[in-house]
């Protein structure tokens, strides 16, 4: 059973993602898989032809994928950004903040736990890729990007 | 002092609820210990040799009497009636039950405190100058900048799974009372052409590979402070080593890339981040600053110190430091009674310190990274009354910055990482010098003890440093000389072969005899060592 949590309305890409190296060598792939050691910035010249970026988390404690995600969103990527691998319920909220809008965890997550985790934080202290207005913006009556 | 608004309170309350849920899932078995570990660590909960240890954050070491009372109540209710103040200006409790942890966090939240990010591979509690707001030499109170960074770094979505822990210190004077250059990021608030800005020092640290942080930017404008920190962290999060936890701190990255290349990458990231609007407006910094306005000091310039009681005069000379306002001093409450455990305080002592702060120090206390407590704003005229109360409670040791004022990690008595005990060594050394009456004659002498190579006891930065190691199943202690964590920062060098527990106490005595023999007028131990070098000390120790 493959459980993919998806927070987008568009059609999911139908084919498998290729590695960053393969992607850079061929022009027809629309899905690419970023490993922790890959430089997400290598994709920036090609964002308009990408519909899905999978970022692999081989171990949940390896946090490089959080930066990869934000870098892609900061550069304007608006396709699907999927965290795959050792994705646990307690990391989902931070992943959402960094721009992930779908998840393919190795072990299925309890739907109630997911809902609770994503609804947990009423506000945030800092700007990230999710466009939520940080607390400082709320304090100073600035709606910011929200 | 900073006060939470409804946003801050809501964030801390939410964290308590989140942790309560996580602890419940651990207790019912739905979270494995491996999965729970990083979650509990980010709430300051460690599993030590005998029990859980909870480390509570004291942001930039500042607290008020109400908070000190709450810490005392926790010690009584959930622990064994005492707590341990740490080198990160925090407090930790050594005998905690997992079942109680969420309740303790809830008690803390009631007094605007928490244990958020006091452990784990994330941005830790931000430390600062313990004399902030009282020191005559500061260009500004550094704490508003530390508070700005506290909020930025709390629950940071990108930087919560870093290669390794990350420590930031903020100071605002030339004197360094916070070991700023031995931090992952050290920030010095400076004034240039009348404007305040921040100098960034990145890649310092102690541990098994001690390094002094190079300055990578001399002046970051205040309206780019958070953005610059974010750039420093992002380069580290992406490129810091993750293959070996002993090479994962940012100091290794900066060392391996070279400060110049690391800086280039930070500046590149910084330029991109400036477009992303991550910086809070200066109005936010101004809002925070309003909480740190100077208290209303009395016109006390004419106050004189009554020195008729010699014990009091000794304490006043040793344990008080000048204040920016005439007629006031900052008074240091020593948590280093000879023979005691450095940094420990009982619940009763905490309550007393809280009460005295309320009566005599504008309701403020500070935790020093040297594990003592400061009452920052004490009127000279109140000093004798203050000292009398402290002395009666075992808190009147006149030993600030002396050989008795030892930093020691918990060591093998508590810590699961330690190779050797630190506390008994500290107790023996302090007792030796207190009994011989030599403490005062030796003057400033900073002695620091770590029970393992991770260097929590800052031994690399001690004028005299002691490192406990395991030598074929026997505790062995290496002696080092010449370290400093102050503005004259330097790393200590090992004298030679190590000693057993009693041997290292004798060795410290020997080293101080060389100093007494060789010193010139006004020289501190460290000054003499720097002038004459290691050889005379080695000859006395091994010759």
Task: Explain how this protein is built.
- The complex is a heterodimer of chains A (146) and B (543).
- Chain A is an alpha/beta fold.
- Chain A has a single domain, classed as Rossmann fold.
- Chain A has five helices and six strands.
- In chain A, strands 1-6-5-4-3-2 form a six-stranded mixed β-sheet.
- Chain A is globular and about 50 Å long.
- Chain B is an alpha+beta fold and 543 residues long.
- Chain B has four domains: 104 residues, Sulfite Reductase Hemoprotein, domain 2 (Alpha-Beta Complex), CATH 3.90.480.20; 156 residues, Sulfite Reductase Hemoprotein, domain 1, CATH 3.30.413; 83 residues, Alpha-Beta Plaits (2-Layer Sandwich); 136 residues, Sulfite Reductase Hemoprotein, domain 1.
- Chain B has 17 helices and 20 strands.
- The radius of gyration of chain B is 23 Å and the shape is globular.
- The model of chain B has no long low-confidence stretch (mean pLDDT 96).
- The interface between A and B is large, with 38 and 40 residues.
- Chain B: It comes from Qipengyuania marisflavi.
- Chain B: Its cofactor is siroheme; [4Fe-4S] cluster.
- Chain B: InterPro entries: NiRdtase/SiRdtase_haem-b_fer, Nit/Sulf_reduc_fer-like_dom_sf, NO2/SO3_Rdtase_4Fe4S_dom, NO2/SO3_Rdtase_4Fe4S_prot, NO2/SO3_Rdtase_4Fe4S_sf.
- Chain B: GO terms for molecular function: 4 iron, 4 sulfur cluster binding; heme binding; metal ion binding; sulfite reductase (ferredoxin) activity; sulfite reductase activity.
- Chain B: One of its GO terms (biological process) is sulfate assimilation.
């Amino acid at each position: 059973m493959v459980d993919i949590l998806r927070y987008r309305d568009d059609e999911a890409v139908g084919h498998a993602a290729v590695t960053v190296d393969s992607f850079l060598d061929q022009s027809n792939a629309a899905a690419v898989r970023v490993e922790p050691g890959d430089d997400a910035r290598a994709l920036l010249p090609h964002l308009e032809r990408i519909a899905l970026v999978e970022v692999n988390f081989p171990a949940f404690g390896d946090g490089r994928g959080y930066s990869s995600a934000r870098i892609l969103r900061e550069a304007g990527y608006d396709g699907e950004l999927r965290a795959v691998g050792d994705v646990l319920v307690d990391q989902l909220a931070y992943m959402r903040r960094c721009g992930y809008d779908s998840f393919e965890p190795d072990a299925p997550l309890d739907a109630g736990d997911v809902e609770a985790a994503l609804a947990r934080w009423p506000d945030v202290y800092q700007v990230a890729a999710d466009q939520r207005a940080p607390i400082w913006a709320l304090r100073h009556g600035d709606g910011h990007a929200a | 002092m900073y006060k939470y608004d409804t946003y801050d309170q809501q964030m801390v309350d939410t964290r308590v609820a989140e942790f309560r849920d996580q602890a419940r899932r651990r207790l019912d078995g739905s979270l494995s210990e491996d999965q729970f570990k990083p979650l509990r660590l980010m709430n300051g909960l460690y599993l030590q040799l005998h029990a859980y240890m909870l480390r509570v954050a004291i942001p930039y070491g500042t607290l008020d009497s109400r908070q000190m009372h709450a810490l005392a109540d926790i010690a009584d209710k959930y622990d064994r009636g005492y707590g341990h103040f740490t080198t990160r200006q925090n407090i930790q409790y050594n005998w905690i039950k997992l079942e109680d942890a969420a309740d303790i966090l809830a008690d803390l939240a009631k007094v605007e405190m928490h244990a958020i990010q006091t452990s784990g591979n994330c941005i830790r509690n931000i430390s600062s100058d313990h004399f902030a707001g009282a020191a005559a030499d500061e260009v500004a109170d550094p704490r508003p900048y530390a508070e700005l960074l506290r909020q930025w770094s709390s629950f940071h979505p990108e930087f919560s799974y870093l290669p390794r822990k990350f420590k930031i210190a903020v100071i605002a004077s030339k004197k360094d009372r916070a070991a700023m250059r031995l931090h992952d990021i050290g920030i010095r608030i400076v004034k240039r052409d009348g404007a305040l800005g921040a100098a960034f020092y990145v890649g310092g640290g102690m541990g098994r590979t001690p390094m002094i942080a190079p300055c990578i930017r001399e002046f970051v404008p205040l309206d780019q402070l958070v953005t610059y920190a974010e750039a420093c962290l992002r380069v580290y999060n992406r490129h810091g080593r993750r293959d070996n936890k002993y090479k994962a701190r940012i100091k290794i990255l900066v060392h391996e890339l070279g400060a110049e290349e690391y800086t280039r990458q930070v500046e590149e990231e910084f330029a991109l981040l400036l477009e992303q609007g991550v910086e809070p407006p200066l109005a936010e910094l101004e809002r925070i600053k309003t909480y740190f306005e100077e208290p209303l000091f009395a016109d006390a310039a004419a106050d004189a110190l009554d020195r008729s009681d010699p014990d009091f005069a000794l304490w006043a000379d040793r344990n008080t430091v000048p204040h920016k306002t005439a007629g006031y001093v900052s008074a240091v409450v020593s948590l280093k009674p000879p023979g005691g455990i450095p940094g420990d305080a009982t619940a009763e002592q905490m309550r007393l310190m809280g009460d005295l702060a309320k009566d005599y120090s504008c309701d403020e206390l500070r935790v020093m990274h040297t594990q003592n407590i400061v009452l920052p704003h004490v009127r000279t005229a109140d000093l004798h009354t203050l000292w009398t109360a402290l002395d009666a409670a075992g808190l009147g040791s006149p030993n600030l910055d002396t050989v008795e004022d030892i930093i020691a990690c918990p060591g093998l008595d508590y810590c699961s990482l330690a190779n050797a005990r630190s506390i008994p060594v500290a107790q023996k050394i302090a007792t030796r010098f207190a009994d011989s009456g030599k403490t005062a004659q030796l003057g400033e002498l900073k002695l620091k003890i770590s029970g393992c190579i991770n260097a929590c006891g800052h031994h690399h930065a001690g004028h005299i440093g002691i490192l406990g190691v395991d030598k074929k199943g026997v505790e062995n202690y290496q002696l080092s000389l010449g370290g400093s964590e102050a503005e004259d920062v330097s790393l200590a060098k090992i004298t030679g072969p190590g000693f057993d527990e009693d041997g290292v106490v004798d060795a410290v005595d020997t080293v101080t005899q060389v100093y007494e023999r060789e010193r010139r007028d006004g020289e501190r131990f460290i000054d003499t060592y720097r002038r004459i070098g290691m050889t005379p000390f080695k000859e006395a120790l091994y010759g």
